[in-house]
Write a sequence for this structure.
């Protein structure tokens, strides 16, 4: 058996074990996805703002990856589990109810946590991170609610 055949066989087995694991533990699949999607969106935003490969803020992208993978994915997974338990039907009325309740409960918590954590991950103090929330939460929440 050639080296390439062995590698392909090993990769197939590893991939099979990985997909089996993430099917049994969907929160892990979400965490891995968000750990990739959030920094990608950060880099896209920086590109739109005129940055290039040479001057991207890679630490900011890392902060987005950590926050997306270690906070957003698990909390969103928990919210979806709770909302599915509270409203198990799959009707349009239930979907609208879930969306409204999410906007009034999970949304404000998620925004506050985002502003706090991203500021704190910059190695700012707890007081500075708290000020960031106080400064940005209400204007952001108003824009969010006006879009509904």
């Amino acid at each position: 058996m050639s080296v390439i055949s062995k590698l392909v066989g090993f990769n197939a087995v590893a991939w099979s074990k990985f997909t089996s694991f993430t099917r049994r533990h969907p929160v892990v699949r979400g965490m891995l996805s968000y750990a990739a999607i959030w920094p990608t969106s950060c880099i896209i935003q920086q590109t739109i703002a005129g940055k290039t490969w040479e001057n991207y803020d890679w630490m900011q992208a890392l902060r987005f990856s950590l926050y997306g993978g270690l906070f957003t994915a698990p909390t969103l997974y928990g919210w979806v589990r709770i909302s599915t338990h509270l409203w198990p039907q799959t009707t349009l009325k239930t979907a609208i109810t879930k969306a409204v309740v999410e906007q009034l409960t999970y949304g404000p918590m998620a925004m506050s946590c985002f502003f706090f954590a991203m500021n704190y991950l910059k190695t700012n103090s707890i007081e500075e991170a708290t000020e960031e929330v106080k400064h940005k939460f209400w204007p952001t929440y108003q824009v969010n609610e006006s879009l509904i």
Observations:
- The mean pLDDT is 90.
- Residues 30-146 form one domain.
